[in-house]
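Changelog note: in this version the structure field was regenerated for every chain. One regenerated record is shown below for reference.
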Amino acid sequence: MTDIILRNNSLTVRIAPLGAEIQSICDGAGMERIWQGHQGYWSKHAPVLFPVAGGLREDTYLLDGKRYIMDKHGFVRERLFVVEEQTNTSATFLLTGEAAAHAGFPFAYTLGARYTLCGDTLTAQTIVENMGETPLWYSAGAHEAYACAGGASQWQLVFDEPETLAHSRLDRGLLTGETTSVPMDGKTLHLEDAHFANDTLVLASLASRSVTLQSELHPGKTRISFPDFDYLLVWTQVGAEFLCVEPWHNLPDRADTDQDITRKPGMIQLDPGQVSTLTHTMTFM
């Protein structure tokens, strides 16, 4: 299926129906703001994470005593969405019915990914409706990779609020329960390769709900606002010219989890007939 193009005077956005994934965002100066997946590094651009963000212990969770298998970041990034609605500045992608079925997610539901352009801001919404007769448990996350000329170590993250950053340590994708402090310069985190020696910065106790990615050496600032998300993960591959700034509604499993999905922090219980929407925005300056 052909990619969908959204366009206004400030931005041109290209989105693939496969995974409802952003492929490209070009600003008014023609500069590409999304990582283009160069060979030798990560090939994705901005996958939608559903029905869980991050990894589960043994790729498994328990619900009502039954064991279900679910890969890291869920499965919808490999599913073909239908374009439900499209204008010059907005599009809604829908996953439902057989296309939405998965053995590890035993619920009747629809999943919408809606993108809306307004000026220099792109709003992304994840919309879930429980079409079944029992409660549905899910979470979601974003995974946009922003182009960073020269590599992430030439860039900074500036938070809206003063932060005492604590990184929740991962071991093979699972939280260990240990935290380490991350040095700040006021509200600014100067990115270093060492931040990613253990894969990902997991920021689980933020006061801010907006952060700006910027560089003193390169043009283009990106402000990411995530009012509906409690957690922020920051990731790159050392040597690659991208940084993923990822609002998540849940965290990866702890290594000592009992695997009961109803007790996993950040999971959303959606009752029959209910609709839930999670929103984040990207402003390109």
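Spot check on this record: The CA atoms of residues 57 and 74 lie 13 Å apart. The two ends are 31 Å apart (CA to CA).
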